Amino acid sequence: MSMFFLASNIKETIFTDFAFLALLIVLGTLLARLSEAIRIPSITGYFVAGIIVGFLLKAFHIESIYTDLSLISSIALAFIAFELGTRLHHRKLFHSISEVIVIVIFQAVFTIAVVAALFMIFGAPWEMALIVGVIAMATSPETIMYISRKFKTKGHLTDAIMPHIGVDDIVGVLLFAVVMAIATAVNQHGHVETSHAIMEPVLEIFGSIFLGGAIGAALAIIIRSTAKRTPEYKQNYLTESVFAIILCVALSMHQFHLGDIHFIVSPILTPMFCGIIFTNLVPKSVRKENDEAIDGFTSPFIFSFFALIGMNLVIFIHQEEQSIFYYILIAVLYAIFRVVGKQMGLWIGAKVKHAPKSVVKYLVRCLLPQATVSIGMAQVLLHNEALPHEWRTTIYVVILIAAFLYQLVGPMVSQRAMIACNE
User: Fold this and answer.
1) What is the C-alpha to C-alpha distance for residues 392 and 376, in angstroms, rounded to an integer?
2) What's the average model confidence in pLDDT over 117-121?
3) Using one digit for the tens of pLDDT, what is the confidence trace for 357-387?
4) Dist CA 279 CA 277 (whole Å)
5) Distances (CA, A) of 383 to 4, 49, 76, 186, 269
6) Distance, CA of 229 to CA of 218 (rounded, Å)
7) pTM here?
8) Which has the least CB within 10 A, 72, 203, 321, 422?
9) What is the C-alpha separation between 389 and 395, in angstroms, rounded?
10) CA-to-CA distance for 375 and 403, rounded, in angstroms?
């Protein structure tokens, strides 16, 4: 009898989860159409839909639904990282690699310094300020990919955006692993061995690159062997790519052991390097057809991801004791200081490399959106109990609010930058 009631409760939970997911999608679709009608990118509509559903969950005291649906966020993040990786073909990357690296380095230095200084003014410990400075480096690739696909943009700025975002996010994730290890060691006051503090981020970084690269190479071999004679060959491409991406998600949720050292692989780097290795091992025609097959499949995941961010923002803020106005103040300042840091770094880096005027003038506007990668980092920070609870939660809420602010203005600014640049 107890098994019957248990099965019945599980069915009811699944029903509630999927009912609210359906509501999230249909409400997001309606608000997306409304957003486009008033010339705001549709992604913003899904974000607002998530906020509305978040208030409904609070009203009915069923916030656990967000936790049940959070796997969708992990899958969406992997698809986004994989697609970003597929945009980093060696021909496009090496064409402007020195320009990209120099600009990214200057952006990293100035963005980290400016944002870290802001948080230290608010009383954050230096290691927590350093972490949020590194998070500020990250740029949201899916917004630019969505705009680029929708308007079929072409030109120097379009070619420059993806390598910049890709290298920016790779450097950001690598630095994040390092500064997290430093912050953990500082806050554990000698309770962690130095060898562990060094090896864990090293294993995370190289483990992510190795596993992601191996899966990407295997995917390239499988897809190259897929016969084009059958009319459903693109469906086969999609099925094989989804398998590889889901495998990356599964591996990023597993804790690995090497002796007495415990480490995980990055949920961002692993699918990203899967995409990088894959796209550089297949012909251009196969790469293009695989992109077309994936593009139509990923949209619901990406839109659901933004809706879930809005939902999470409402739920998490209601759980915290600090005033919402305190978080909004820091988030607004964070958003401003991040833009200032990126603009300073971009301007100096572009001058050093004599970059085209279109890059100097418009690139920073295309680097405004911030959500997926930064929230992924903030979630890792939030769950690290060795770090101060007050600043873990503060940084997480600030990143969520900033993501909301950037989604209100970032896509619109990026879209207008591409139009102004005649792309």
Assistant:
1) 13
2) 94
3) 767 777 777 777 787 788 888 888 888 888 8
4) 6
5) 35, 26, 20, 17, 19
6) 21
7) 0.84
8) 321
9) 10
10) 8
